[in-house]
Amino acid sequence: MKSELVLAIKQLCEERKLPPEVILEAVEAALISAYKRDYGPALNIRAKIDPKTGQARVYADKLVVEKVTNNRTQISLEEARRIDPNAQVGQTITVETTPTNFGRIAAQTAKQVIMQRIREAERNYIYNALVDKEGELIVGVIQKVDHATGNVIVNIDKVEALMPRKEQIPTERYYVNQRALFYILEVYKSGRGPQVILSRSHKNFLKRLFEREVPEIMNGIVEIKAIAREAGSRSKVAVRALQPGVDPVGACVGMRGLRIQNIVKELNGEKIDVVEWNQDPAVFVANALSPAKVIKVILRRSDDDKTAVVIVPDNQLSLAIGREGQNARLAAKLTGWRIDIKSESEAKEEGLLTGEELRETQQDILALAEAILTGKKPIPSEAKAQPTALTEALAKSIALEQMQPPEPSEAVEEPKPEPEKPEKAKAKPRSKKAEKAGELTLSLEDLKAELSRIRTSDSEEERKTHKRKKK
After folding, report:
1. What's the mean pLDDT when you consider all of the chain?
2. pLDDT score of 229
């Protein structure tokens, strides 16, 4: 039959979620303290508890001598040989010194020591269990919200953790018994036991969410290179693919945006921009300013400063800067470059765009628009440092405008019989979209006239062919 001590130890293990060995060590240390208190200090005292019966025994190491002068530390050769027939003088042997009423004395004197040791063992066990989870996500239940300080007390596996106001998302509201996901920011020891600091605003919280939702990141196919976050408002994440043929941005967004929507839902609507990381700082800066389109990036390095001068179209300037400068600020944090954004007209005045660059941009627009009109694949030009997404979009808008049917003019009858020599096509009035886009090239009217000339020459060829067939 098990003793009350064994049953008490088993109950403690279940309540405190501690292994039995920890409780037994604490009880044995308390028994040694109780023995020394009642019977005086002695060297090499050990206490053992039988885990099956719960019987406590005390053992002492004594020196074998011919004449005993101290009964607590010495034993005669005759008594020693009763325990060990091979004992010799000068040898140390273990002798049981358990008092007759030791059980009652131990229960009275060791109670406080046992509770103190159990609390220490519990704290160490909790600390060792949580310190390995530092930097990971964990689910907790909000236990208390302190409106005076703004701190939130969270219960994590019967451990009270703290989420300070600075680690909270400003747009979120917390209430008691609310279950939420938290990032374990720090675990440290203090006089009151292990302290756990939680966070939902840290940028690594967003990183762990991506790792949980995107299998390619967890498997090492896609890597998160940098994160810039303003919690509750907007974040930018730079990713790159570690295997060829993998679209890192598409992998993070997911089919129909399912993966990124799950992350946004966990963050209660926080906007997230996923951009592709590039080894070239100019391309990376241009990508980081997404969704704004960039014409050119000029890098200026010095010993203590890295500045990127970014040139954007006039109608994209406010989009590149963002509300209260948020887009530019996050892009600067993401890339590590100080970003100076200039409009195209301002760059022309300062001479940041050369005439050759402007002519190349105009030629690119013309080639792309002609390719869209004729259905031919444009000839790829040499790779350039500045992004070309803007010119392609502009060319498409111009080509679509040219493909629209001509607007009805005033009554002017065309002569029926003889084909006349085609006159130079007049450019029709520009639409509002084209007027805005016209600022992006040297002469948009010349571009339209050139496209009209292409169409007119094709019509002339058709008329000549028809005339020859009649003859």
Report:
1. 77
2. 95
Helix (H) or strand (E) holding 155: strand 152-156
Residue 433: pLDDT above 60? no
Q: Taking a C-beta distance cutoff of 8 angstroms, is the pair 445, 427 a contact?
A: yes
Residues 178 and 99 placed together within one structural domain of the fold: no
pLDDT in tens, 174-195: 999 999 999 999 999 887 788 9
Question: Do 382 and 465 belong to one domain?
Answer: yes
CA distances, 248 to each of 107, 137, 237 (Å): 66, 23, 11
**Can you give the CATH number for the domain in which 181 is found?**
2.40.50.140
Determine the pLDDT at residue 455. 63
Instruction: Please check whether residue 397 lies inside any domain of the structure.
Output: yes
How many Å apart are CA 47 and CA 56, to the nearest integer?
Answer: 7
> What does the pLDDT read at residue 142?
94
The neighbour count for residue 443, using CB atoms within 10 Å, is 11
Q: Is residue 179 part of a domain?
A: yes
Which helix (DSSP H) or strand (DSSP E) does residue 366 occupy?
helix 355-374
Same-domain status, 93 and 13? yes
How far from 44 is each of 61, 63, 67, 319, CA to CA, in Å? Answer: 6, 11, 20, 78
Query: What are the pLDDT digits (tens) for 225-236?
Result: 999 999 999 999
* Among candidate residues 352, 370, 347, the one with its CA nearest the CA of residue 439: 347
Strands, DSSP E only, in 20-84? Answer: 45-49, 56-65, 74-76
CA atoms lying within 13 Å on the CB side of residue 333: 14
In tens, the pLDDT along 241-256 reads 999 999 999 999 999 9
For residues 289 and 360, state if they share a domain.
Answer: no
CA distances from 346 to 111, 115, 236, 350 (A): 82, 75, 28, 6
Domain count, the chain: 4
Q: Which domain holds residue 78?
A: 4-125
CATH code: domain of residue 306: 3.30.300.20
Domain annotation covers residue 23: yes
Q: Is residue 204 part of a domain?
A: no
Which position has the token pair 């409009």?
A: 343
